[in-house]
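Dear support,

I submitted the protein below through the web form. The confirmation email said the job was done, but the results page showed an empty box. After a refresh the structure appeared. I'm attaching both so you can tell me whether what I see now is the final result or a partial one.
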Amino acid sequence: MSSTSESPFPPTRRIVTGHTPQGKSLVLDDSLTAPRFLSPESKVSLADLHYTAEAPAVIDTELTTGKWIDEAKTQTEKIFSGKGSNFRSIDFAPGTVSPLHRTVTLDYGIVFRGTITLELEEGERITLREGDTVVQRGTMHTWRNETDEWTKLYFVMLDAKPIEVQGKTLGEEFHEAK
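What the results page shows now:
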């Protein structure tokens, strides 16, 4: 397996559009996103491509405040915004295993490059390849890159109502994967 901790994928180019004071279309931002590692020893990097703190999303700050507010750059600590949406890319190094986790979100995922295994908490496993999609509905899961190549996924995460099972609310959780 590759020992490099640097993703071989180039930064994602992100174009954000908006409006002039007259309501005409314009490009607010055209830049490369800088990925960040979850921790110094992590081999998982992510880049927040867009972030909204609420839903419905506020998409006219350049008109109401005179300046576009890029929430993806002002928020870096949270996995999910809590009430809005996240658009994110995640790069997994060869041999990487994510923590076993659940977010209270509806996640749409697309495997852009490589192969990755989705493992649910009871051990059910499914391998996803380039072009495959996953709709993650608040389940406990881990991601395993069991190949010797890097894998890149894109996710859109949306706020969801918490799941209730037998009177217990299933909230956000993070545990070390086995």
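Response: this is the final, complete result; the empty box was a page-load delay. The two ends are 20 Å apart (CA to CA).
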